Amino acid sequence: MNLELTERESLILDMLARDGTLAVSALSKTLGVSEVTIRSDLKSLEEKGFINRTRGGAYPSFHKDILERQRLNMEEKNRIARAAAEAVQDGDRIMIEAGTTTALIVRYLTGRRGVQIVTNSTLVFSYARLNPALNIILTGGIFRKETESLVGPVALRAIADFNVRLAFVGTDGFSLERGMTTQLVEGAEIVKAMRNQADETWLVADSSKYGKTGFVSVLPLSEVDGIITDERLDPAARQRMSEQSIRFRLV
Q: What global pTM score does this model have?
């Protein structure tokens, strides 16, 4: 499936993020195309996981913040997710932390068999439930709709019950000076818990996150086994990470 958005699909998402729900007739009139075309666009957006269709209209699948983040650097995020999925083998046990890039990993696991996924992400669940070959364990916990995540003591206890080969985690910002950072203390706790239960932990984040600093420190970059990011990463940052033996892959 092509996960990229057309210009009109992006406009539709802008309108839905602003208004919450819209009718096919209103979209047709505003965008100057037929209702048949709008219905085709809505079907495409539903298949890509952005919206839910209703009789005569549509509404966003997720919180406004998630919808906006999903659309940022889509091409890069999909390349990163595809590269991360390539590391997953048949019969693997993995953890996936909540995030718009991490969630895309499950979309590239088609053909894998017997993969067990432990996740605190309801976004991961919404994608993974479409693939019957994947076995999903949701951690439980307090639901945070703005991040589509399950957090808190219940989630942490659940993560501690499982041992996995790979953990894929995200971040709101990363740098050599500050390491991985995020906006929420609860998110930092989840990342640390998953790292403790995994043989290898990989940070998956597009290059726009480099140099940004969130409110909460999570981990130094030296405490993850590697970083998968895109080729837009600043050459100076690449050089410095290489000098400090930080393992990274550009896609």
A: 0.81
